[in-house]
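Protocol step 4 of 6: structure prediction from sequence.
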Amino acid sequence: YLDGFPAGPEALVKTLPDSAALRDPTHNPRGLFNFSFAIGSCANQNPLHGIGPSLPTYATLLRQHADSVDFQIMNGDWLYEELRTTPVADWAQRQAVDIAELPKVVRDMPTIVGVWENYRLYLDRGTNLSAWHRRVPGVFTFDDHELVNDIWGAGTTGRRDRRAVFRDIGTRAWTDYLGWANPAAFPHGVHHGRATLAAGSDVLIDPEADFKTLPLQEMLNLHVHWGTPEAGVNDLRFDDDALGDPNARVYEVVEVIDSHRLRIKPAAVADGQAGYSIGRRSYGSFRIANSEFFLLDTRGARQMHDTSRPAQPGLTMLGDDQREWLIGQMQASDADFFFVVSSVPFMIPHAGAGGFEAAANKEEAWTAFLDEREKLIGFWDTLDRPVFVMTGDLHNSFAIKITDRVWEFCSGPHNSVNHVPSLDEANRPATGLFRSGSRTCDIRWSTYVLEDLPRLQRLYPHYLVVQVNNVFNMPQQLGGKRLVSYPHPQVIFQYHEGRTGKLVYAESVVLPRKPDAH
């Protein structure tokens, strides 16, 4: 509603139960309840790269699950690059904004208007998608396409790469349209401005900034932007280093000199003015009943990988700060179940591009960060409670048992062309044991596309519904309600075909029995 009058279709959502109202000292002392959520990824609306804007998976979700699930986790690649070169003047005309009175964010980061238009297009064109979001609450991660495809090394100081330095422009637009709904461990926005730089100098000057007030210890590093209209376009032709601002790269903030000056590393290489930004930490957590959810950012602080050295010591996808935050939060939690939401696969490589353009050294998954991955698995095994790594990005679905306590459940694609495991996923099997780095895991089930299918015949969408069973109803009179908690709650992972909703696989994981259990 605007000014008390309807301004669009109504949105109807439900809220979760109140634990305090459900507590029973004998039968349900923690006030637990059952809940369920849908999760998936990768909903390309371009008919050259997916099913198109009809989005049949969302029609199925609306028809079969909108009234039963409590929320959705959209685990990345909600958006794919379109309209990214929209001129600021066109955007201003559409928004009835005087070109002389542009918002500061547009003056500092003009290519953000193309990302905003990209989101508007997806919501306007994807009617099933919009209807779903009006019915079902959601939280979101971003992967690469919300920013720009194959964005690597945004956390590596000195890296000069068009895609890497688009991070904050894409992140700000994602926050405006989707990320605002998320819990945030550090609720600071992207800082942006226009800076003066001098060749050989390690000082960045922005007379409009007040660097002394920025919580830099709770933010990411600094990027100087590429500065071209094509900065956020998914096209290898625009990756030429000669095309961008000569100072565009990834910088470390070494010191706040005063309110308007930062010392940065490395030094600038040319005289000039350029747009710059300091990133936000786009991760957070939330608790529902006895389950803790962690929404990770796998792109913002990600260091540049090397596929020839996947076990490189110290290489990080999360960044040291996010990893230590995750470990600390999980150590302090008394949750029975942990859901760790990563936009990229954990055990299966993503080394191919599904028959589309591919860059050298391509790897999206944790399989290029084996040292950090193994540290996390080792830590999770000490918790003695189930840890579910919920992943996406790979345009296939799979359920993997990693250890007795650690699982991976990948869900998707919602609408994009499937990848071919024999070409894009290290020739993994459809089911069975698979060697991932130094660790063997058990692929319990997966979607699997053979390589003899033409690209646009590989359109097999899937989604996942997760049911957490904590209680059962046992009233003293039939038709009543008295919730009794299970000694050992269960989580049931249910994979469905996107077009039909048909259940194709289910896996149940139960809270471990203690040695003295009866």
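Step 5 (inspection) to follow. The first strand starts at residue 35 and ends at 40.
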